[in-house]
């Protein structure tokens, strides 16, 4: 339990979940809770790709700007972005102005729009099967897993970019495809119950 911390309400959280008010809200309200719609998954895949090499706090503080810039992460709308939109995004100081990541976000929207399987179904089909040992410390959390490696390969095969196994696993954690809240964290049980109700297809 040494890697659990108490937040502003004195409840126990994962070690990172109380370091700032933004992290506390994100930890409690979003991280690990199941996301099962294509738009929500596209948003998180995109933000995780933009986060690569940066602090997640930076991305969270720019999240509303990202949503405005990418029209609410509407997949069909972003898929229609052209050179003028790229120029607009590169001039937008409210987001991360990385040309390769911007190009990837647009290419990924086009690839998702052309999928013959819903993105949510594709992502959740790579959820681990059977029971997983619940993590008790940060050392128990992998950076990549066989499932994230397989999903990364499948997404790349279907034309998506900037989504290596580490980025994909971070998305799987954020979207509840796995439950990586530590044992003793007050959110862990809530997340497990939500996953059982909301996940597309069986988890065991």
Please explain how this structure is put together:
This protein has helices spanning 21-29, 38-51, 56-61, 63-69, 75-79, 83-90, 99-113, 119-124, 146-157, 165-174, 188-198; strands at residues 4-6, 12-14. The chain is built from eleven helices and two strands, in the order ββααααααααααα. A two-stranded antiparallel sheet has the order 1-2. It is globular. It has 204 residues and is mostly helical.
Secondary-structure blueprint:
Blueprint: E1 4-6, E2 12-14, H1 21-29, H2 38-51, H3 56-61, H4 63-69, H5 75-79, H6 83-90, H7 99-113, H8 119-124, H9 146-157, H10 165-174, H11 188-198
Antiparallel strand pairs: 1-2
Helix pairs in contact: 2-7, 2-10, 9-10
Summarize the structure in short.
This protein is mainly alpha-helical. The chain is built from eleven helices and two strands; from the N terminus they run ββααααααααααα.
Order of helices and strands: EEHHHHHHHHHHH
The parts where pLDDT drops under 50 for at least 5 residues are none
By secondary-structure content and strand pairing, the structural class works out as mainly alpha
Cross-sheet strand order for the largest sheet: 1-2
The level of helicity is 40-55%
Number of strand segments:
2
* Tertiary shape: globular
User: Number of DSSP helices?
Assistant: 11
- Please give the alpha-carbon distance between the first and last residues: 27 Å
Question: How much of the sequence is in beta strands?
Answer: under 5%
Rg, rounded, reads 17 Å
Characterize the biggest β-sheet. Answer: 2 strands, antiparallel
Provide the residue-averaged pLDDT.
95
């Amino acid at each position: 339990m040494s890697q659990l911390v108490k937040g502003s309400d004195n409840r126990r959280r994962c070690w990172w979940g109380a370091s700032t008010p933004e992290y506390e809200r994100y930890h409690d309200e979003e991280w690990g809770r199941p996301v099962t719609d294509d738009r929500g998954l596209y948003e998180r895949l995109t933000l995780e790709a933009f986060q690569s090499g940066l602090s997640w706090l930076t991305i969270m503080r720019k999240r509303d700007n990202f949503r405005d810039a990418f029209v609410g992460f509407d997949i069909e709308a972003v898929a229609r972005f052209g050179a003028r939109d790229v120029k607009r995004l590169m001039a937008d100081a409210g987001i991360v102005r990385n040309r390769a990541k911007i190009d990837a976000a647009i290419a990924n929207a086009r690839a998702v729009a052309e999928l013959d399987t819903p993105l949510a179904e594709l992502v959740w089909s790579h959820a681990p099967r059977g029971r997983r040992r619940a993590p008790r410390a940060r050392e128990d959390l992998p950076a990549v897993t066989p499932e994230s490696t397989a999903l990364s390969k499948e997404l790349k095969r279907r034309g998506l970019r900037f989504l290596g196994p580490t980025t994909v696993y971070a998305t799987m954690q954020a979207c509840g495809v796995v439950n990586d809240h530590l044992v003793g964290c007050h959110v862990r049980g809530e997340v497990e119950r939500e996953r059982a109700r909301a996940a597309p297809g069986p988890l065991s």
